Amino acid sequence: MSNVLSLTTFLPILGVLLLLFIPKDSKGVLRNVTLAVTVVTFLVSLIILTGFQANAEFQFAENVPWIAAGPFIMRYNIAVDGISLWLVILTTFIMPIAVLSTYTAVEEKVKEYMICLLLLETGMLGAFISLDLFLFYIFWEVMLIPMYFMIGIWGGKNKIYAAVKFFIYTMVGSLLMLVALIFLYFKGMEAGITDFGLLNFFSLKLDMATQIWLFLAFAFAFAIKVPMFPLHTWLPDAHTEAPTAGSVILAAVLLKMGTYGYVRFAIPLFPDAAHKFAPLIATLAVIGIIYAALVAMVQEDVKKLVAYSSVAHLGFVMLGVFAFNVEGITGGMLQMLNHGISTGALFLIVGFIYERRHTRLITDFGGLSKQMPIFATIFMIVTFSSVGLPGTNGFVGEFLILLGAFESQLRWWTIVATSGVILSAVYMLWVFQRVMFGELDNPKNQKLLDLNAREIAIMVPLLVMIFFMGLYPKPFIDKMDPAIKKLVAQVRVAPVNAQTMPVEAVSQKMPAGYQENGMPPGHPGMETPSASQAAPAVNPHDAK
Amino acid sequence: MDMISIPVVNMTPILPEIVLSVLAMALLLINVFAPGGQKSFLAYISFIGIIVAAVLVGTGWGNHIESFSGSVVLDNFATFFKVTFLVAAGLAVLISDQYMEREGCNHGELYPLILFTVVGMMLMASGTDLMTIFLGLEVMSVSLYVLAGFNRANRKSNEAGLKYFLLGSFSTGFLLYGMALIYGATGTTRLYKIAVIVGQMTLPSANIMLVAGMLLMMTGFAFKIAAAPFHMWTPDVYEGAPTPMTAFMSAGPKAAGFAALLRLFLVALPTLQVEWSQVLWVLAVLTMTVGNITALRQDNIKRILAYSSIAHAGYALVGFAAGNGTGTSGILFYMLSYAFMNIGAFAIVILVAKKGETNGNVMDFAGLGFKRPVLAVVMTIFLFSLAGVPPAAGFIGKFYLFAGAVQKGYIWLAVIGVLNSAASAYYYLRIMVYMYMKEPTEEFEWVHVTAPVALALIIAVAGTVIPGIVPSFILQYAQMAVKLL
Asked: How far is A69 from chain B (nearest CA, A)?
């Protein structure tokens, strides 16, 4: 099966073709077929998972010519490595859950909804596996369309505003990235690069000024998607208005596009600029963590609260990634998966009570644990996962991130960020308390039914993953570790202070270490990167 | 005694033009004898004629034949554009019948006029002499003035025709004056000779007559392609003209304007490229920005598409300002794609509008998405393509246009271009918002989609989607077309 990656990516499109022939009134058939398609896609993606060798190479590669005209050559160039592998699996894993969650939530225009979901899956998978910059851009933009319709058609009362805002925000960012991409291509052409293949560009030596501009363009596009403070304002709107499945996918997968973009593109393509901007990005990440946590605390709408918690969690991911060491990036990658699972689960939970009560205001609830014990238990586990309680997946990721960032030049940022962990506990536990405990005094709540079998079935895989990744993250880390080590080495090769000297000359002069940018020399927290590379202070495997 | 020597004229380069002219005249005659009211068959005959012409044009690919003492040339550049014109005309013919029938102005002269317009446009694309280009332009323009005012009973259509005629003649004056000055400066109207003479000048940019001629010609064509600040006529004319003709006008003549402009500037005045590309830089920025910002505030869908067509001329000017192979081939690709997607979008507008175009506002699209899902999906494809969202031809075209600018070093021009693109997404999305996210205020009349319109929509969708996914072959043709320019 040499093209199993293409198969996984385009199976949902085949599903769309199938759906077109099903009459729109047979809602049950539409739902079941979509579910079947996503489950099959997941099973096929397991072939990738099991066949994936734990090394730093790109695997399951497919590379055929696609467009060749004028100065440009674009190829259908796809593969997975340890970094994208897990995001592919996360996507295929979340999709059946998202589909299942719509069985009662979406009653109108089911066919169109299912088509949107499947198109979205292809777009997301394609973006994760593309190794051709142009191909990546195509998938990156394609994702926008179904998500736009999902928010705009099936969303809440401000759906149109939210949908248009989501689309325009993302498009502004990605179009600037497109210009940068074209510029990069021409720079590469001067150096003899003949196509848009990402790996070619890793060896490209760009001067600092060019790197800064290009990095800014890429970083801006990804920062909108992450979203990073202060570009996050589309997210609460989009999340609040989107239907449950939309929110789940948005939180679980789409936001990862941004952080993945940094890890796969912005940082390795422009390592010097990435180092230069690390303090700025870390600052924004930390502001995001604290600010979003504070805002989450005062939300009256549960869904908005979860949306803001997303901003905070993604801030942690960014902090870890910009630590540029193995622990930080591993933590960041794990946290991407964790956030996908726990925030996805939170949105599902919010969806469950919204379906029952058609309100999401915290004050409308209280004492639900008496009426809905199963629901309460599940909610509690997910809450713990979200706040990063040891034993759940959230802990492993956050711990590694903070560890990695603390060892790096970002020590002071880390100290501030750590308070975000406490804040997240404050708002999550507080909302849990207000919704679940207290008097069951609202008569409407006294008639609530507990979760049914389908709803429990949706949550079980997520709960299993919460504990599995919390107690035994080794298999996850093992597969991503070589790729992350390679990335760290790649980013480290480039020295930081290269404003004037050609890059190669500098790297010859400074073989062992380099001045960390943004930190005074002789700072206690300073550590030569070569040392930590040779012997990481803490083996990520011990973190379990 | 000297004999008057008649040069041997090779008719091959203008064979398609001859076919279309003869057909147009024949149709005028047939129309007289046609049974009253039955004009549909004229559309079918025209469509077949257009296909025949397209085949003839297609067989000319790869040739380079000069004729009429070097005032007309058959080359790949002309061939590519001729195909674009024929696509625009073919689609326009297909969508005209139903509309004209409904509006009660199904006069048989419509089709010959469209064919004459095409002949004029073809001459513009293959003209290598200022006079040929001018004649082509006039043949095209005069027919278009009539087409814009074709719905005689409609005041807006009359206004459109008159306005287009007055401003069009005015701009022709500029153009002709510019051509006269060029002739004054160089002593010839042959583009190749102009190039040689300008090339021999020690400092051509200091030759005021030459530069003024160049600028005046640019102004004249800027009117034709609706570039800001010479775009004022566009919205009124586009709104008033019968919708199929608006569709045709937005795609065909615009492409013809670019064809003539490209050949003029790249063949005759390459030595002044530094000068004209600066002017075009400014013109491109103005055109994109004015078009998009004004379109944001419109409610009438024909006006939205009119302003957006100004913006699209701006994107094409970005590639022109770059002036390199990437940018200019981008123009060729974009004009062809634009013919498909824009005429397609107008076809949907025709179907949604009621008699007398009372249903021409964005609000009237409310609920279309679920009442007429196929039409809405088709419209969505066109709109996303116009907005430049992949995978659609509009995206690939914009990519090459902006890539040309980046390659040339005009990074800021490309940045302004993409920001404009993002702004344009707003008004395209707005139409989709109404189609999919708002409830209809009144019941839809079940519009019957006639076979020709359905065919037009199928062709337009194919022309929008397929080059978006596998654009290589068209791009390569476009590259070849501009190579020998």
From this structure: 5
A144 CB neighbours in chain B (<8 A) are 389
Contact yes or no for A281/A314 (Cβ under 8 A): no
**pLDDT digit string, tens, across residues B292-329:** 999 988 888 889 999 999 999 999 999 999 988 899 99
Per-residue model confidence (pLDDT) at position A535: 40
Evaluate if residue A496 carries a pLDDT over 60: no
Per-residue pLDDT tens digits for A167-221 = 888 888 889 999 999 999 998 888 888 888 888 888 888 888 888 999 999 999 9
Closest alpha carbon to A175 in A144, A212, A207: A144
Q: How many CB atoms lie within 10 A of CB A33?
A: 19
Instruction: Give B-chain residues touching A167 at CB under 8 angstroms.
Output: 425, 429
ipTM: 0.90
Angle, to 10 degrees, between the axis of helix A133-142 and the axis of helix A144-154? 10
CB contact (8 A) between residue B403 and residue A160: no
Tokens 């670019």 belong to: B258
How far apart are the CA of A143 and the nearest CA of chain B, in angstroms?
10
Report whether pLDDT(A497) > 60: no
Say whether B437 and A171 touch across the interface (CB within 8 A): no
Task: Name the band, by pLDDT with cuts 50, 70 and 90, for residue A530.
Answer: very low
Query: Looking at beta carbons, which residues of chain A come within 8 Å of B422?
Result: 168, 171-172, 175
Tell me the domain boundaries of chain A: 272-544
With an 8 Å Cβ cutoff, is A179 touching chain B? Answer: yes
- Given a cut of 60, whether residue A542 has pLDDT beyond it is no
Checking B152-161 for CB contacts under 8 A at 24+ apart, the result is B152/B105, B153/B104, B153/B105, B154/B103, B154/B105, B154/B240, B154/B356, B156/B239, B156/B240, B157/B240, B157/B241, B157/B242, B158/B240, B159/B236, B159/B240, B160/B236, B160/B237, B160/B238, B160/B239, B160/B240, B160/B241, B161/B240, B161/B241
Q: Distance between CA B132 and CA B281 in Å, rounded?
A: 28
One-letter amino acid at B375 equals L
Task: Flag the least confident range among A342-356, A482-496, B82-96.
Answer: A482-496
**Averaged pLDDT of chain A:** 83
What's the CA gap between A481 and A24, in Å, rounded? Answer: 46
Rounded to 10 deg, the angle between the B208-224 and B155-186 helix axes is: 160
- Cα–Cα dist B258/A23, whole Å: 47
How many Å apart are CA A102 and CA A31, to the nearest integer?
8
